[in-house]
Design goal:
Elements lengths: L9 H15 L6 H12 L8 H13 L3 E9 L2 E9 L1 H4 L2 H12 L3
Antiparallel strand pairs: 1-2
Length: 108
Amino acid sequence: MPRPIGTIGETKLKILAIIYHNEIHGVASYGYNIWKILKEKFHCYLDDRYVRNVYRHLKDLNGAGLIKKGTKQSAKGAPKRQIYSMTDKGRQLKQKFNRYLQILEEDN
């Protein structure tokens, strides 16, 4: 059954928590590192083929105005990385993604 329009699924909430957490700790958020955190902390998208799903979620979150694209960052031996950050609208959802933020904070 499709999700009602305007609702945000669990994976998107986890991604928002990751981006928020990364900002607090001065870490750049880009697709690959978000996928690695989803895989390590939340045991999502364990198969490497599913990294593309993260980019779809990022596109949706950006389209909804919850995150925004920043500058592209160069990485040695890798393509430029699209950096994402939270918008005020995204930060307003902190209560919804706070449980995932707590999981990310456990190791810090």
